[in-house]
Amino acid sequence: MSKIGVFICHCGENISATVDCERVAKSASEMEGVAFATDYKYMCSDPGQSLIKNAIREYHLDGVVVGSCSPRMHEPTFRRACSEAGLNPYLCEIANLREHVSWVHEKSEATTLKAIDIVKGVVEKVRRNKPLNAIEVPITKKALVIGGGIAGIQASLDIANCGQKVILIEKGPSIGGHMSQLSETFPTLDCSQCILTPRMVEVAQHPNITLYTYAELEKLDGFIGNFKATIRLKAKSVDYNKCTGCGLCTTKCPQKKIPSEFNEGLGTRTAIFTPFPQAVPNKPAIDKEHCNYYQKGKCKVCQKFCPTGAIEYDKPDEFITEDIGAVIVTTGFNVLKTDFFPEYGYGKYKDVITGLQFERLASASGPTLGEIRRPSDGQIPKKIVFISCCGSRDPAKGIPYCSKICCMYTAKHAMLYQHKVHDGESTIFYMDVRAGGKNYEEFVRRAVEEDHVNYVRGRVARVYEKNGKLIVKGVDTLLGAKPVEIEADMVVLATAGVANKGAEELAQKMHISYDPYHFFAEAHPKLKPVETNTAGIFLAGACQAPKDIPETVASASGAAVKAVSLLSQPTLVREPIVAVVNRCAPPMFSTCVGCFMCETICPYNAIEHEEIKDRRTGKVIKTVAKINPGLCQGCGTCVSFCRSKSIDIQGYTNEEMFAEVTALLNK
Amino acid sequence: MKLGFYPGCSLNGTAREYNESVKALAPVFGIELIDIDDWNCCGASAAHAVNRDLSLALPARTLALAEKQGFDEIVVPCAACFNRLAVAQYELNKDEMLKKSVEKSIDMTFNNDIKILNVVQFIDKYIKDKILEKISHKFEHQVACYYGCLLVRPNKIIDFDRVEDPTSLDELMQLIGATPIDWGFKTECCGASLSIARTDLVAKLSGNIVKDAADRGAEAIIVACPMCHSNLDMRRPQIDEYVGEKISTPVIYITQAIGLAVGIAPEKLGLQRHFVKVNTL
Question: Which residues of B touch A486 (CB under 8 A)?
Fold first, then answer.
């Protein structure tokens, strides 16, 4: 005969205003298997918890039911209290009398009766609950950071400075990401390179960080604390041990007209190249798609000139595997392709450029060395128009969400333009100016009031060329929808931020989820903003949604703390709410028939094969499913798929759940 | 191949030449266009501004008739008619109750699944592939393709071509040897039905369109809408007055241009009916 204690909480007046708590407790005391029942105003308070602990000791309770708020709120609180009184915490359960009863019903007889029923159901379940123990999993003390933009750099440094090892992989030839392309940064106008490059160097020199550039994640196996990452080190065609980074090869390479990715196509580079002078590592790699040798079979000019003999052609990609405890994904974002708004003439007119291209024009390291000169003829534009929301907030043609960073960078662009072209005239067409952030609104006001940037609220319908000018046709909605036409010398489009190319593929490799726009999905948008639904994999930066630098850095530090708090534990302790395949006495060993349907549907790859062998002969008697408790997230999909009913979720077994439901139905 | 044909009022009146050119072009490609018997007004330009039920019931009746007469597809050359028919079909398919009430008012039930083609969709589907083998007189002229507002809108219903920068007419004209120009007015408003109430406004709006086309060296403006045509063509005196010069660039229908290219006689295409004379093509 079980001895269950039932504790009904009033939750101040939250429950007691509509439920007769005293009566619920009295009814509970008459239920089968209940040894003690009472009610109290605040069960979660210190006296409330003491009440439970004392009752456990006094009545030798072997199960506890707390009728209170949602288990999401205080299940851990009450389980801890039970544990302190010597009761296995998993023998304590919550009957949710607040969210499920008092908050959703009026005060009435039926409301109290419903509360009694719910308590009865949970009592029946707890009578069948079995003590469970938390699962301990070992941890590999090393983090993998994927993506070497500012998010990856910040996360790597934070982890490394906590004394943990980090592997940082970057698919391009240098770390730095989009931030290295930016000119000056809002809202302080400090130079992006000046604040970024020292950190890039720190990454390269940190004893706890191993940096692989030109590297991509090939495969990720394993589970929290025990991942195995296969990394593809793409062949650079240059031996970095011999290369001194003198750069002679890049001056000699005959392929000189390749559009530079770093300069967003506004400058050129060679086939053997370092993307920019401050690159880390500051050593070149060969872009095979444009290299004469790789494409036509001859050239080898770089090899001829290399003073240290570092050029090595035709070396295949290498693969390395690393044991990893935690993963942080910081793969960043991209800007929307311009074919969503052909009416703005991007691609047709050379002087219609994207915001990222403007960054390069305004940057001291850019193709014009920071002078604002338009791409078509190198003239300084005297009239410039910025169009915000190009594709953003446009469910019909572009993307429905707000790209968040564009209002601020467009204000910055106009400001930089005014600082550099004193007699210039800049106009910004906008829908709304969203300047939420520390010193952001002040920054926009400064653009308007001190730099005299002309803000026009309205959309641009079309940009077309006439007599060498770009005619920007729009509307001023604050002046009674008056049509506006501006003859501009250059037009800058604030193109929407979208998920990076290949994000979907990477998510599938790692078994993390992504949203309809292919941004990676957080476990909870508010309370778990850097976690994914897969334990041990964290997110930071603009791979989650468009983010500015402060927000990216904050999330990177957040993800780093999550990773470090995982890595700094001796072993990993997890809730034992996982699926288990039953085992029984020989000759059955398990009712599992080894069909492995569960393996095909498990979203977390948690199903393993176990061979049951004869102890003496070692012959395999039967192969059955076994669930890796480190990987299992307790979703229960396998339970419903199992044809022989051989799988149960611990703490939610079929027997327990049936007992609860039956109790609710049989009054 | 037999297809249903909905002329609408314009093609029987101000846009007779549009009707003639579509009807002359189709048989060259082995297509017979059969008028929907007892068709009625689509309600364009007035009904949807006044009475929603009426604006849906009018096109619904035509759609129901076409269905009863056994057509799977109907060709609707007038951009305004096409727009009203397509919108009615979409709205009624979305709302079962609304469809029932409309069926009651037109005293007919129908499946509402007939395929409605505007003139460009019709050409794309039945003519485009065979144009090259039929061309006898390459249309080697610089042209400004003018789409107007209704041909590709509303995009979520019609879902054809790029709404702000359509290219389907340009592609067709290129196919028959023409050189479409890059210009800024391909979807600008011509003034539409304000032609009568506010002729001055139409002169201004259509004037900007015609002037830009002429300034950029277009030898003809290509259209696919009777309303656009009448504003750019019939209102030319007012346009000339507004822009302060005499512009002689003719405005012709896409079907007339293709008709000329495949060797149909100009008078069969109704080219003599335009106010701005077509002498140069």
Answer: none
- What is the interface size between A and B, counted as CB pairs within 8 Å? 27
pLDDT, position A573: 82
Residue A196's closest CA among A226, A218, A174, A223? A174
CA distance B70 to B58: 19
pLDDT reported for residue A667? 61
- Which residues in chain B have their CB less than 8 angstroms from residue A342's CB? 162, 164-165
Q: Do A466 and B212 touch (CB under 8 A)?
A: yes
Given a cut of 80, is residue A1 above it in pLDDT? Answer: no
Question: CA-CA distance, A537 to B23, in Å (whole number)?
Answer: 66
Could you tell me if A399 and A336 are in contact, meaning their C-beta atoms sit under 8 angstroms apart? yes
Note the pTM of the prediction, 2 decimals: 0.79
Torsion angle in degrees (nearest 10) through CA of B225, B229, B231, B232: 130
Amino acid at A227: F
Predicted confidence (pLDDT) at residue A337 exceeds the cutoff of 80: no
**For A471, which residue in chain B has the nearest alpha carbon?**
B184
Is the peptide bond between A198 and the residue preceding it cis, with omega within 30 degrees of 0?
Answer: no
Residue in the block written with tokens 């949970």: A122
Q: Which domains, ranges and CATH numbers included, belong to chain B? A: 2-119 (1.20.1050.140), 135-273 (3.40.50.11810)
The answer to whether the Cβ–Cβ distance between A464 and B184 falls below 8 Å is: yes
B220 and B249 Cβ atoms separated by less than 8 Å? yes
CB contact under 8 A, A462 and B184: yes
Judging by DSSP bridges, how do beta strands A425-430 and A383-390 pair with one another?
parallel
Q: Which residue of B has its CA nearest to A343?
A: B165
ipTM of predicted complex: 0.83
Asked if residue B281 has pLDDT above 80, the reply is no
Inspect the interface and report whether the beta carbons of A462 and B156 lie closer than 8 Å: no
Q: Sign of the CA dihedral A243, A244, A245, A251?
A: negative
DSSP classification of residue A354:
E
Chain A CB contacts of B205 under 8 Å are none
DSSP 8-state secondary structure symbol assigned to residue A162: T
pLDDT at B155: 83
| Continuous segment of H or E residues that includes residue A168 | strand A165-170
What is the predicted pLDDT for the residue at A422? 96
A461–B164 C-beta distance less than 8 A: yes
Where do the domains of chain A lie, and which CATH numbers do they carry?
A: 4-128 (3.40.50), 142-234+317-332+500-567 (3.50.50.60), 248-305 (no CATH), 334-498 (3.50.50.60), 579-650 (3.30.70.3270)
Q: Which residues of B touch A (CB under 8 A)?
A: 155-156, 162-165, 182-184, 187, 212
Which residues of chain B have a CB within 8 Å of the CB of A348?
182
Q: Is A486:A452 a contact under the CB 8 Å cutoff? A: no
Q: What distances in angstroms separate CA A572 from CA A92, A382, A612, one per listed residue?
A: 23, 62, 28
Contacts of B162 in chain A (CB under 8 A): 342
Amino acid in the structure at residue A221: D
